[in-house]
Structures
1.
Amino acid sequence: MPMTALDIFKLLPKKNCGECGVPTCLAFAMMLANKQAELTKCPYVSPDVVEQLESSASPPMRTVKVGNIEIGGETELFRHEKKFFNQTAYALIIEDDVDDQRIVERAKKLDAMKYERIGIVSGVDLIGVKAKGDAQRFSDAVTLVNDNSGLPLVLMSEDPEVVESGLKVVSKSKPLIYAGSTNNCASMAKLAKEYACPLALYADDIDELVSLSEVAKSEGIEDIVLDLNLGAKPLRQTLEWLTILRRLSVKKLFRPLGFPVMINLDNGADVETQAIRAAIGTLKYTSLIIFKDLDPARLYPLTTLRTNIYTDPQALIQVNPGLYEIGKPNRNSPVIVTSNFSLTYFTVASDIEASKVPAHLLVVDTEGLSVMTAFAADKFTPEKIAETLTEYKVADKVDHRKLIIPGMIAMLKMKLEELTGWEVIVGVKDSSALPKYLKELSNG
Amino acid sequence: MVVSNFGVTVMVAIPKENWSGKIKEVAFGATDDEGGTRDRKLRLGGETTLPFLAFEGAVSRPAIGMEVIDHLGEDYPQLIIDEVGDVIRDPVAWADACVNIYGADFVCLKLLSTNPEEENISAEDAASLVSTVLKQVKAPLVIQGSGDYEKDSRVFEICGEAAKGEQCLLARAEQDGYKSVAVAATANDHAVVAFSNIDVNIAKQLNIMLTEFGVPPDHIVSDPLMAGVGFGMEYAYSAMERIKLAGLVGDKMLQSPMIADISVAWSAKEAYRIDANLGDERDRAVFWEVATALAALMAGANALILRHPKSVAIIRNVVDELVG
Ligand code: B12
Ligand code: SF4
């Protein structure tokens, strides 16, 4: 909730001395409200007022950068109200009490746990290096992980000395310090300050978490991530607290909790339980999830769910209409029609690729709707397809006059043949049958 | 007011919403004291807050159902066939397994073979299957048609009668074909599943039309169309969430409990395609369905129709933990 010029004016010294560069306090207030002036221009505002004004200008939930990954910065409770901004980051743990070789292997493995789906690469975002022993071992492990993966790190230890040994190695890439708690908050905060790294705060209870946040703030720490031990609480309480924390930050503008929230699932739960909690956390208000471990069979669905929830509800994800070459098509290769909804395009393109039959893929502008949806909305019409065929001069690129259309829109065949003079072949309904279908077509 | 260990004084007031609306409670399944023969009675809806937020209102326990199809299409996932075994070819035995082995709260019997463009079995034959299922399997039943308006109206008429007094759900009534379902339901004391297409306005419109047509509001369950993870889930999720919120702030025509058919999770081939990079396809398929179900639950679904027996077990645990 930004303050109005009048709200700001009430807080100014009302000396009308002009030292700020404009003649009156009111004029200055108006400039501040329009973000055309800096508060520091007025030498007479009290520190109290400075803080009040600054906090009213800051967003409800801070965006925190861990390495190159941004988390938090959310403003809504429900995605349809605007959108969710920074998708839940997933971190997997490497413990430092195994031999070097295994650390190296696991670091490489986690680094490679990424999947490309509809043009988006998604997977493991961070590695949590967890200390099980002394500072020297931790620092070695951090070095190994850092040298063998490009992922930003979470430095996991309760001992400030151990954390510092890791910070000395990787502070440049801004790892997350995990975590400051009642026992060590002040010293962890000092480290965060000294090395300019974000700090996670851990408490089992909300009041305690608030006090930790105040302590960190008094040490000058701004990049905070909150852990209310939600990975270990009963699921029902986890969901309730996630909701409460989000409401406190974005609706109540409760500053001590205006930070991204994380869940640590490193508590003995099996992979399936972790994945279930992570799915709920991704749907509901969690900015960072630390897993003890996760297999691709769960990670892949999770990243897909995450992509879904964090897409902008106001914007359909689409590709440009046009004539795309899949493989290296020639003048005899088939021409295949589809819609310009990203999901449809990438699904069909990858199914054509799998067939190893090169093809021309004619992508019609259906305004980002899938084949069936576009058909139902009258946006995948014979006229539209005919127009696209002409627009992209398909007739100049192939010697044949055959067009394969999705099986779902078989009813367009006659009209389309009439409009184009091309022979229209009704393809399979589901493009996953395309490999078989195209092979048969090209063989006979 | 809280004074912490560090001497910092802060106030944390837990923010609670005071919703003015309440989701309608729809009775699903009649036991013998009501003239039915079901062994349990499910109540869908009745909550006064968002899903599982017991700290600020009454929550309701979502019912977990399973699908049974009278005739499997060619593209029915082999993973399910392998898991369920031979009984999958016999809808009565399959329904029995769903309830008595896998622990489903209810069965959704999909009468796909009534489809004029496929098997085209008669409404009478479908009704005799419904009767047999009702006799053998005592859990509440959703009777779902093939989606062909004309045929469905006949199927609902005959099947609705065959199931009279059992308080089934008849699925589904659509905007341009709701009357015959509504008649079949009200005449035999069943509830109607009102199907709209990821569209809050249509969901509302349909409820208005059904109510004006004489279907009591506590005999309507909304199906705003679930979509699988990776296959439009985000649209369905937001539509359901918006419907639930509108109901809670008091829109009477958006207060029906919602049912979500989670079998749509299987429309994403990547859920179970064999691909070593993506891990074991059996685990992946189950989790894909589980993830879709979790999305439906978080968005406010009051009843789920699941496909894989393992996801039933998993979701039951989750619901137990969430409802407490
Ligand atoms: C998400 C969704 C929406 C989203 C839109 C998402 C989008 N960007 O398109 C929203 C909510 C906006 C929407 C709206 C509507 N929708 Co809609 N929607 C869906 C849903 C759930 C998923 C669609 C999807 O993402 N499919 C995935 C893509 C990849 O599928 P696809 O493009 O068809 O491609 C496949 C095949 O066609 C084939 N293929 C594609 N290209 C080619 C090419 C060749 C050569 C071959 C061989 C094959 C092939 O392979 C692909 C992979 O299998 C479906 C139901 C479902 N589960 O399918 C309903 C569905 C498509 N919608 C439907 C309807 C009716 C509508 C509305 C008209 C509803 C309304 N009354 O408002 C509106 C219309 C939109 C508008 N007015 O703006 C109906 C269509 C009914 C019909 N038979 O015509 C469906 C089937 C739901 C249903 N069961 O009733 N919808
Ligand atoms: S310098 Fe401060 S006190 Fe003086 S006019 Fe500007 S705002 Fe007012």
2.
Amino acid sequence: MATRKARMSFAVKRFKGFWNQFSKSKRGVAGVVIIVFFSILAVFAPLIAPYAPIDPVKDAGKYPGTTTPPKIAERLCSPAWYKYLPWIPRGPTQVEQSFWTNVTEHGGISFVVFGDLESGALAEMKDGIPKATFDEYRQNATEHYMRLNRAATEPPQLEIIFPNGTHKQTEIQEDMWDSRSPAAVGGIYGTSGYASMRSFINDLYEDLGQDLVYVAFKVRYQYSRDITENMELVPDFQFASEETFNNEWDWATLTGSADLRYNNVEGVDNDGCIEITYDPKAGEEESTIVLSKQFKYPYWEPPLSFWGHVSVRVQGKPVELTITMQKEGAKPVAIIELLREASTSYYHRTIYTYEDAVMEASGSLTPEKIILPSPGNYTFAIEAVFTGKDKTTVYLDDFNLLTYGNTFGLLGTDNAASSAYPRDIFSTLVYGTQVSLIVGVLSAIFSTVIGLFLGLVSGYVGGITDEVIMRIADLFLVLPTLPLFIILIVALKVVYGAGAVSMWNIIIVLTLFGWMGFARSVRSMVLSLRERPFIEAAKAAGAGKFYIINRHVLPNVFALVYITLATSVPGAIITEASLSWLGLGDPRLASWGKLLYDFQSSGVAVTRGLTEYWFWMFPACIAIAVLATAFILMGYALDEILNPRLRMRR
Amino acid sequence: MGLKEYIAKRVLYSVILIFAVLTVNFLIFAMMPGDPLRAYMARVEVHTNKAQYEMLRHQLGLDKALHERYVDYIVKMLTWNFGNGMIGGGQAVVDQIMQRLPNTLILMGLAAVFSIIAGVLVGVLVAHKRGGWFDTATVTGSLVTYSVPIFFIGWLMIFFFCVQLKWFPLGGIQPRAWFRNPPTNIIEFLAGRISCLVLPTFTLFLFSVGGWILLSRACVLETITEDYVVTARAKGLKERTVLYKHVLKNASLPLITSVAMTFGFLISGAIITETLFSYNGMGLLVWDALRGGPAPDLPVLQAIFYVIALCVIVANFVADLLYGVIDPRIKYG
């Protein structure tokens, strides 16, 4: 016992001494702090990250009868704290936008073509608009293109400028522009405005009677921008509490004798619901009742989309149900109309923004812009219309409407093609720490152990063993690693499919090709140690090979082990990230490299992605860089302490 | 051992390396469990039948014995017969590679030359003023650039120099306007090509310069305390002469070994840099082979790997020769 205690205290003393040395190196301490920070992130990721790293959903399992629970947010949301930035435009603005189209070249397929206008093509233009003007148009067109995909609140006014300099102002007919995308003034193939816009331009073309090559457009319209956030209109959508119901909901019988009450025994999980009864008096044929809820929509921009749900059970005759949204002082807009017949079980209806029923009921291709067009007080309601002379009861439960804004979470959401649901980037980032640390540390440990073993064997045994090991090491050192890794993982993918690649494959590959450098330096150290007197003395005393390696060689090499461990982690982390970046990582894991691969392959143009969606890729890049740097810094500090030659002379 | 013998030994070693690479390449295919061709066909084509399968098997020579296939493979590779890939419209893989190899070599060569020169100069300077603020800053900076993933550097370059400042074209190997009106004189041509080369080269440069600074600093620190350096100083030589003539000369041997190794290191950076900048080189070919078709094009990737490995082996060979010429101990040892 006593010896153990003594040993312990010796170990503590040794560690203290080491730490004294180590803490003198600011770089080393910074590295250790960062590593500890990331380790905490990795270990407590499920607690720190608010959402799942893959396919996160809101209230999973709470909405019965739907296989697709609501997403947590819309795709490509900006971070929630954008609302505190004063320079983000909030409110209506008058926008004037210019773009150009090449009629003769693209006349057959699509009109409005954004992008580069080659300088050579400009030369073909007849004397008319000066090049500078045209360049300016082009610039504006590319820059504002995406912004215009947001809500426009009034139809564009067109001003067409022809190559010869003539202007023509015109009001553009409604069927020529798609309100969902005012940038696509008749331009994008497949929209309804396409054909009419084409004939419109053709008419102009004939009127002018000239060889029309390029047309520059100027569009003016009202347009508002704002930071919008997710809203849940009915927090207690399961109607579990009567008090909440009484406080939040309002109801009115418009005609007839239909009545409404809170029922605390019925409902989908028998946890309470709303019961609407129609008990017609003599001669009564029809009754309408409205259940409504007031709320304030504070944003200048409509939500990006919405998601709704309602569960209904009808006893008796068919009932007409209409979910509506009404702005104060405006006409109500129907979101969906449902005709329900009597049934024994609940009918669950999930409502999506762009489903046919919703577009039909609201009379718009962009229902979200019709139902919540501008800030103000709104009434969200469900209207039940009863007809006939029979007693009818309607049970209403799980009634909710979620609207999705354009900001969410700490770092916004992504638009990954690989994920069915948009992910919370912050959560993905936190979970990614796990992968990077596991891959980095494990492959560093494995390759260091293998390197140590082979180096010791090679150096101490010598002869043909040494020759074979070192030649293999040389071969592996010469092979360009990344292309080789790519081949190995692709081979795996080709045979077993994309799902076969796992984190462990990457660890194995990294280990397999990571031991050579360390084996070499261990070998050279062993070679020089072997000739030292103390080894000869041990030999003379009759010590065996294993004993000498274990007791005399290993302790002398061990300083190197720590340094190599620390310095080979970053390489592994970066290689893993690079492989994932190329799409060769584990497709089921949320790793940093995968995050960046998703960014790269999401179809968001790099230029826009880097500026508008910086929060998607920069944090992950910085995380990789910081973690890798931390290990390098720690290794470097260790090197300075454990390698006496590098120690500072005083 | 004379120089000739030394060269002969290195040649033999390089040939063995080439064969080893080919064998590794072959083994990856040969050791695949199951039937890769079957799996591949299932992935690529909608309908397959046995006749098609047999025909392909025969065409690819997969029905032969393993050793025959090995010999076939070696002969094919040595005669640069890589077949036709799925990408690039069925163009011969050799042509695709040879079209792109010079671009990659230019990119990597420039990055290597700049980073070696800058790295060694800065490294010597920093080692000389060891412990000062400049040393601390440079070493920390090098450690950071050394451990930053290259796609981050590349994205930063694009962000600052293409998106914000608009100094350089976004990507490609030549200005886009050249599709319509190609350059008329050599100056225009060079200017266009260079403008497209600047950012990828700078990215690769930043990626590798940190390693060079650290390495040359370490090498110089090892020799700067040697007696002959003290002697040189005692003779009253200028500090610069001492540093660059006496110290660097002796510290340069491990550096030369690293020059050879840097090729293998740079190629992994180049694959990603080229993808980022759509620079039409081997790296972009790798990307195309990975993403271009319905399934990753393994034979093309293997051919690329073979050619890259060949380049690395040649570079190593040249460096070994240089080493032999420079270091008298090897010549007469």
